[in-house]
């Protein structure tokens, strides 16, 4: 386990993953910037698979919250909230107008840090914030502790609260509320990550004119995303509304109604061109259409990319580098990546060790020429033969290990 020193050097992704939650919070506190953000720098981020990147992003979000020692507001009366939601869904006309939201958090020092309590508190408050803003949590707050203790793949119980096949296991209530409260935050973070990638490439290529180069970099990434079927992350809310209508705001409304009807939602509604003038239920309906749009887009992308994915997986299977039990899901995990890295490291150490033994055996042969060897000719011959065999075997193992690792990495990066 890496230690955290007062002056922390630039770390690797593997170092970050090896931190416990407490160590990660300590590291982030040391990297706090003057504007209350965090200057985190570590190598090999761009080599992570999407699943690994999502896991790390989630840990960093939680770590940032804990590092800021935020004390959240008191819980809301669940009975009152439930009654109000029933009233809202039954009578749209009684909804209060949308008002500007004020910050719900205030900062105060925490005398004794309790990681479990902090996480539970933040999830509880996010749960009530999500309900208060018209959203719907993935599961009742009463199941939060059970969720925290369950195994990663035990999805059945919680899937009943979001619909069959729709359970987003890794997404917490805090994430759901953040997406509802700040729908553009993902795009902002994505652009920041692109800026980091661009600056690294600029350092490697020693290019000038940073802003012009970054604009070109964004355009190229935008083109590639559009070709792959993705929506450009920099698209603003009003651009999204107009873009999806393809015929102005009236067509956007018509498309939303058609889209929702396709998914079984037939309740009448009327959107306002200014989202701030909409009541909460109408805003929720529009958000539901927004989620379905992404859901359907992802389904189309999967359908379009499935042949390429299957071809890449077949190529990997035919290479015969996979082991019993390895699937196209397990090779994406961080545990699998660490195992491959460890195996390669061990293979390299084995080659280095046998090379040293071979040099020692050859040294005895040279000593024998001047009568200084302590081994007989027969013993020297046996030692040379044995070390040569071990060296050939070790090099072959390293070659096999590298080939396996490279082919799996090629599959991951290509899909």
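Sequence proposed for the structure above (415 residues):
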């Amino acid at each position: 386990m890496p230690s955290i020193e007062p002056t922390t050097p630039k770390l690797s992704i593997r170092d970050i993953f090896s931190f416990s939650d407490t160590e990660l919070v300590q590291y982030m506190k040391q990297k706090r910037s003057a504007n209350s953000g965090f200057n985190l720098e570590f190598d090999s981020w761009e080599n992570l698979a999407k699943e690994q990147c999502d896991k790390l992003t989630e840990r960093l979000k939680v770590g940032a919250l804990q590092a800021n020692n935020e004390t959240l507001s008191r819980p809301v009366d669940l009975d009152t909230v439930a009654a109000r939601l029933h009233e809202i869904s039954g009578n749209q006309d009684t909804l209060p107008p949308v008002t500007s939201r004020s910050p719900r958090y205030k900062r105060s020092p925490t005398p004794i840090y309790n990681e479990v309590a902090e996480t539970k508190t933040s999830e509880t408050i996010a749960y009530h914030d999500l309900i208060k803003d018209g959203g719907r949590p993935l599961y009742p707050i009463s199941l939060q502790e059970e969720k925290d203790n369950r195994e990663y793949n035990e999805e059945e119980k919680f899937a009943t609260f979001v619909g069959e096949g729709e359970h987003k296991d890794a997404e917490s209530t805090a994430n759901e509320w953040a997406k509802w409260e700040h729908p553009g935050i993902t795009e902002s973070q994505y652009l920041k990550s692109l800026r980091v990638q661009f600056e690294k490439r600029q350092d490697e290529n020693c290019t000038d004119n940073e802003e012009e180069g970054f604009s070109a970099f964004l355009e190229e990434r935008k083109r590639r995303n559009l070709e792959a079927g993705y929506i450009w992350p920099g698209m603003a809310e009003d651009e999204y509304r107009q873009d999806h209508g393809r015929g102005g705001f009236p067509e956007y409304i018509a498309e939303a109604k058609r889209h929702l009807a396709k998914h079984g939602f037939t309740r009448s509604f009327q959107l306002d061109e200014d989202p701030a003038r909409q009541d909460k239920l109408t805003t929720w309906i529009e958000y539901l259409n927004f989620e379905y749009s992404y859901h359907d887009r992802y389904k189309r992308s999967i359908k379009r990319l499935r042949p390429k994915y299957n071809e890449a997986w077949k190529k990997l299977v035919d290479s015969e580098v996979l082991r019993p039990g390895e699937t196209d899901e397990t090779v994406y995990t961080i545990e699998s990546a660490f195992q491959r890295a460890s195996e390669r490291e061990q293979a390299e150490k084995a080659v280095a060790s046998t090379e040293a033994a071979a040099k020692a055996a050859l040294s005895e042969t040279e000593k024998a020429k001047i009568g200084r060897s302590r081994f007989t000719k027969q013993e020297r011959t046996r030692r040379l033969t044995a070390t040569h065999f071990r060296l050939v075997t070790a090099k072959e193992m390293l070659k096999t290990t590298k080939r396996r690792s490279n082919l799996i990495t090629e599959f991951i990066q290509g899909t």
